[in-house]
Amino acid sequence: MESLEALRRATAEFDRRLSSVTDGQWDAPTPCDDWTVRQLVSHVVGGNAMAVELLGGASSEQALPFLGGLPLGDDPLATFRAGAEAQLAAFASPGALERTCHHPMGDLPGAEVAGFRVGDLTLHSWDLARAIGADEDLDAELVAAVYARLEPMAPMLDQVGVFGEGPSGAVGADAPLQRRLLDLAGRRP
Q1: Distance between CA 67 and CA 44 in Å, rounded?
Q2: Going by C-beta distance under 8 Å and a sequence separation of 6 or more, which residues neighbour residue 118?
Q3: Structural domains for the chain
Q4: What is the pTM of this model?
Q5: Over the chain (189 residues), what is each successive 10-residue block's mean pLDDT?
Q6: Quick check: helix, strand or coil at residue 95?
Q7: String of DSSP letters for 96-159
């Protein structure tokens, strides 16, 4: 799947769950260690903003604070949508996918940063759905794309610090791909 299409679809997956959050669910726990729904959404909004900044030439030092999240304001859905639109526009700009970004993980092409955003949005769509009791079924093509990116890194995912304990080793190769992806990414549905 092409990078921009994957990013659009991953954004829509997250938006679909976010638009279902009720006032009483913002402080609900998520599958992400110690994060509430509000903190999870803040993290995603910060990640979207970080990508925009990186594509605009920000240094890794300038981008790093965005990983802590951003305030959601009085209308978290509108805040997410504005940031998501800015992110999509930034990645759609001429040369963005080839541009070198000074990501906190090192200098990376824009396409790699887009892949990170697709993975983040897709996995956090499931986290958000689980937290609020919404539909947990993810777009099958997104699941396949994110799994293909993460699976080669399986032996070290537990060391990265963003995938919990990494793969459990308890989910067989014959399990549905979404379940395998979630397990690979440290989720235990």
Answers
A1: 9
A2: 3, 6, 7, 10, 142, 145, 146
A3: 3-141 (1.20.120.450)
A4: 0.95
A5: 96 98 97 94 98 97 93 97 98 97 94 96 98 98 96 77 80 96 91
A6: coil
A7: TTTSEEEETTEEEEHHHHHHHHHHHHHHHHHHHHHHHT---PPPHHHHHHHHHHHGGGGGGHHH
